[in-house]
Amino acid sequence: MKKIGILTSGGDCSGMNATIRSAVRTGLRMNIEMVGFRKGYLGLMKGDGITLDSKSVSGILHRGGTFLQSARSQEFRTPEGQQKALDNLRNLGVEGLVILGGDGSLTGALALHRLGFPVIGIPASIDNDIPFTDMALGVDTALNNIIYAVDCIKDTASSHARAFVIEVMGRNSGYLASVSAIATGAEFALVPEREFDLSEICQQLRARYEEGRDNAIIILAEGAGNAQHIADSIKDAIGFETRVTVLGHYQRGGAPTVFDRLLASRLGKKAVELLISGQQGLMVGLSCNAIIATPLEDVIKGEKRPQDEMLRLAEVLGI
Ligand code: F6P
């Protein structure tokens, strides 16, 4: 193998730059030419590749986001889009591809693999819902962002005797909500994986209020309900003053934590090594602190990473 490409796709996350840096440095050490495609699969379909030398990836380890930029592409889901990408890869002499992203992006990686192109996927999504990896890239940084924000909000919540509904990301995944609730000592974590009874929550808040606890933090995963509706219901039911904070895309940015920098460096290196050794159609991931590789076929048809343990822990801790 002489030339390897890399791209970042779907929702960005902290640690993508550190992964690109690691992959590029690993490839260059083994005399492989490295090419970055801009804006994920869009860049692949346009043949928008840039040569990545050692200098082009210096000074990016500590930066959030992705300097290659990212995008979600409908066109790449079509056979025509995939063929365009394949033609460009072949014309550019790229013989293998490292693809960073969440489940949609890894599904794209699997499509290329099925068409016979060597790919290795890297799980990168703050939702942490990708099977066959304990942690996806960016999750730890996102959690630290959330925890910093919730700690700040707790200060003002207690000063004003208010309940806050804090919405975190997670359309279909309650990982960020449940783990941040555990780590901040929130009163409730509301997640898409588990139904909740709003009147029951109001009752519990009222009981707490009568015991003298006059502030509360409810962490809501965006896919679990409407933050304003929940806040209004609490206010109407118990007269508790409520506020809503939507953390939004703040969660996805910022300097990666040590955990994410290390994970990025390990996954980037492993992905390139696998391609060079002739392996393909795999996703690299973290399992019991070891870097493992799992067929993309299994990753995509696998059950979404179960959140049971965190949800049970939250329950035991009274969240
Ligand atoms: O897939 C990660 C994620 O952060 C989800 O939790 C969230 O719903 C979504 O991306 C937001 O995507 P966008 O950046 O396109 O608004």
Automatic annotation (TrEMBL):
CC cofactor: Mg(2+)
Designated name of the protein: ATP-dependent 6-phosphofructokinase
Residue ranges annotated for the Phosphofructokinase domain, each copy included: 3-275
GO terms (BP aspect): canonical glycolysis; fructose 1,6-bisphosphate metabolic process; fructose 6-phosphate metabolic process
EC primary class: transferase
UniProt xrefs under Pfam families: PFK (PF00365)
Species this protein is from: Geotalea uraniireducens (strain Rf4)
Gene Ontology CC: 6-phosphofructokinase complex
Pathway field: Carbohydrate degradation; glycolysis; D-glyceraldehyde 3-phosphate and glycerone phosphate from D-glucose: step 3/4
Keyword Coiled coil: no
Highest taxon above the source species: Bacteria
Positions that bind Mg(2+): D103
